[in-house]
Amino acid sequence: TYIIAQPCVDVKDRACIEECPVDCIYEGTRSLYIHPDECVDCGACEPVCPVEAIFYEDDVPDEWEAYYKANVDFFDDIGSPGGAAAHGVIDRDHPFIAGLPPQNT
Ligand code: F3S
Ligand code: F3S
What is the pLDDT of residue 94? Predict the structure, then answer.
């Protein structure tokens, strides 16, 4: 899967959403999250993020390793809705993201 890391937090440009052919990029309160089971690794989202927040899972910088787990675990109690647009904005974040001080301000 691809994941979204620190540069997205409190920024949420949302350009990535338009590129994803399977609509698997879900919006939380402070960040967006890529669904690890719905993402087909097409990579279309990665180059359009203006702050370079998106990485293939094996390419996540070490300093942002925790964002892999945050992206995956975010969906523990959501399951696989099969489409972010229909599901709508999710008014919370993974606890790791929620606990961060203001980012990228
Ligand atoms: Fe975030 Fe970049 Fe998408 S800032 S919402 S990952 S375009
Ligand atoms: Fe969509 Fe990006 Fe995966 S465009 S399919 S989230 S690599």
Answer: 98
